[in-house]
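Q: Joint fold for the lines below.
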Amino acid sequence: MCDIIWCKKCNTVNYLDPYCFWNWEGKVNCAECGEVYYIHMIQGHMYKGPEPRPGEKPDIHPLYADKPYDGYTNYPPGVEGKTRPYNCTPRHIYLGRADQRKFSIRNRPMRAWPQPPSAGIAGSQGFYWDIKKLSPEVWEEYMEKIKKGEVRDW
Amino acid sequence: MADPREVRLEDLPGPKSREELEDMKAPYEEYCRKLFDVGNEFVKPMALEGVRWLSCTMYIFTPHAVANLGELGAEVIKIEFPRVADPMRHTSPFNECYFYPLHDTRPKSGTGIGVLNANVNEYYISLDYHRKEAQEVLYKLVKMSDGLTECYRPGTFDRWKQSYRYLQEINPRFIYVWGGGFGYGPKAFGGSYDILGQAHAGLASITGFHEDFGGHPVKHSNWCIDWYSGTQITIAILAALYWRRKTGLGTMIEFSQVQAATRCCGYTVPLYGRFGIVRQRWGNWDTQLCVHGIIICGKSDYPDEKNPQLRNEARYVMVSAFNDPDFKELCSVIKRNDLYEKYKTHKERVRAEAQVEIYRELEKWAADKSRSEVVRILTEAGLLAAPVKNDKEVYESEHFRQRGTVRWMDDPMLGDVIAQSTYSTGLFSETPRRKFWDFRPVGADNIKIYHELLGYPISTIQEWYEKGII
Amino acid sequence: MAREPQEIEIKSRADTLKRRPWPVTPPPSREEVAKVYAKRKAEEFGAWCEENLWFQNVFEKPEALQGVKVLEVGLWRIGHKFCASLLSELGAEVIKIEPPEGDPMRQLTPFGREEYMLKDKYSGEPCGLEFIHEMRNKYSITLNLDTPEGQKLYKGLAARVDIIIEEYPPGYMDERGIGYRQLSKLNPKLIYCWIGELGQWGPEKDRVSKFGQWMLDPFGQAACSFIHNTGYPEDFMPRGSGGDPTRSGVWLADYVAGEQAAVNILAALYYREEKSHRGQFIEVTGAEALMDILDFDISWYGFNESIKARSGSWDPNLNQYAWNPCKDGYMMIGGQTDRLWYRIGMCIEKDLPVFGRLIHEDPFLKEVAARNALQALIKTYTLTSMWLRDINRVEAEEKLLEYEIAAGPLLYIDEVCEFPHFKYRPWVYTIEDEHYGTLLYATSTNSFQMRTPARVKWLGRPLGKDNGEIYQKYLGIGPRMQEVLKEKGVL
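A: Joint structure:
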């Protein structure tokens, strides 16, 4: 197997992403059990390895790993000591799911959370967001923000 | 014929009124500001008012071809498949950003911001072309519209009897646009995306770091070749509208996006044709000018920020000093006058080996400096240098704010949202583009179009909706 | 167009560097292509398209912008050149005004190699390919705008044209009394478009260095976040080896500004003809026009302070939508909706069963939107390249096209020029130029139209070649007077 290391000890699949590992030589750890494997990859092919090198230190972690026999529980990027961090992200937090917000960065309401169905005939919609009626609690929060001076022009 | 002895004010040279006098005297920058009058676009007319266009489009490429028309004032009707809708609606960076305009069929899934800016100022209806009722509706719309843009696989609209072969019979003034990857020819049925255009057309092969530096071909950020190609369709449409004024005849335009990406490769094609040289990548430098490239500085401008894009990435500077005196000054700033002595002429310093040496020395000099220090030092020396800006810095740029090209708007569906497009396509003194609204829910204007424009009774529309025809 | 294939014998390394004829092999025949249409039951439609849109018929049809007169006045950059090309390809009469010493772009050539410049057959004057390639259907005249006589002549031309496309530093024309402010008085119908990198007004407007050097692209790319957002992350490869923000290989901001300028100009022309009978002033910049097409990036910052990060050849918004390395290069595969995504999977699974096992069975990857998560991209593309490393680009393309997947090899320019589809249409084509010999060029994207297709009538023009015709025709200045003006340094 290569491009992935399917760790026989713990049945974890460690993914070796193509751009980092396409031509690469060194030692990679298994994200689950920590077993260290030596690999030498040339043009995406495993020229040597994966050879277990117990007790040695890994040069690099995989970026992602999961366990297919365990309901695909996984190690996302950046689990300390397990997977490599992926630093080039748009924020310091990484969600991977909808960031449901009610206010834009200048604290004015934006419709970024699920709304109650309220379309007209055949799905038609007007051109007005009646926030006071549809989401009174957000309207109140907005009024609070205005009072506190948190609502900005930019 | 005017009496030649009479002296008329309008015949004399110079300004004709106090206002004009002031205009003529004003410093140029002030004159421009006043003329473009940013922020007051809505008091001016729109260039394409009265043009009606049908948009049977998906993704970014063909939608943008039509959005350009919408921004210029055309009335655009976007037709989506009921429920399925434009696949772009599911697209969101790392699955994180969705808007939730009211939508009864899928209230929980939201609309990804991938679709933002691509279909502005449009009316949204839903229609399933497979159904027999759809044809009558579409033909009616064609009769009262100026044109249509579609992006289905070639032959699909023909099979549904709504290709130009059929529509020109209904409306000879009709302008029909097909936009896709390939067009007629052996790969006619090949699908296409922005990224395919970049890869297939040669653009990717010349973008990115050279293989010898360990680099791979780089995809241009975003779907910018989609957008870029779409704009060229708009050019074809506008030219066809202009021609139609003379002849009253429409036309069919077949546009291949992959070709558009080859079109912008500059000397690449003629160089190959004449000399057999296959152009390669040259990273952040320029093949034809030196110094004219991007260097990395030792320190970020925001070492303490949480966001990695600020903390790690605010380190790059665009430096340009290719003319002899500029290069001389640059060498003196970095205290390497010997470099200037070595590469006195542009011809010498633009050679590959020279570039490698010069940029390496520049980066050495910048290794203990932050990005803003480098920009400041070079600017103070009278040279050209600019930071490689990120989205935050673009948002905070006073320049773009004053020019109105980054601005907030209160969208009737989305709420508070930044408009980075539309206004940034250009400033107009007479007919500025503007943005009324961004995307709307699928079928949001079904009543407006089917009932108010085409005259179908509400009950029929309701019935169609229940049957999934719309 | 069809040519006999020419054999090239490769006996040494030097032979591989020999120029190959174009095309090396002839394009597919129309009969072969008709079979492709027939396979999808579209033979009638395919034949109709070829009959009505056929490239080789462009000269049998009229030109959309016939009679529209344009002045192109600018140096160094591509923006104004591309804008004017788009109009001239559609039939506008474009006069390019250059200073007597010529547009400096005429001197540009990759890595300073003069052997890759073309010499005018008559004068021996060299000219760079980047310049020649954009010198489409344009007349070249010389005029020194720094002299009072030159300015007077320029006004004379401006009074006669519909459109001026200008690209000089901010206020340059205005200072000389020949900007929009003055010319619009002479010619109220004039549509005047200024193109630049950052703007002719505002706190960060276009600058020149203290020695007068212009700001050129990629300053525009740098200012709008395009460069910051392009390139591979450091997580994939080290900085300095490609793990950096990366500029486009071409002057992309200029191209984008040029095409938007053409849109704006044509809209203004339509408005002028239909309604106002007046011209207007338009300003387009590379930084802003490119920002217009950066999807939602700035809006995304306004949403939750996200700053778009570069992600190499993987798209952070779509899965699959990337190119990855394969046996002989890079292969692009795209398909996001369930229908397409599973088809890609089926195709790969045939050769690589573990793909099906690990991808299709993972519950996390079943939902279309969730597949855009970073971890899903890593997983999908790692396994996809596991398949790709064993096959080359053509094989991968064939296999994927069988499943109707949008897929294509990443091509270098020699491969682009030989790609059967591109040769068939054609997207690169040769033209015999009177001065520069036979040239291969990228054809106009608007050439495939039923009634008024765009076309390239000539390519490249020596400096001032059309002085005689244009000055005689537009201003009634004959050859003797032109000599006097030339001597004075005006022409």
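Q: Anything notable?
A: The CA atoms of residues 145 and 151 of chain A lie 6 Å apart. Chain A has three helices and nine strands.
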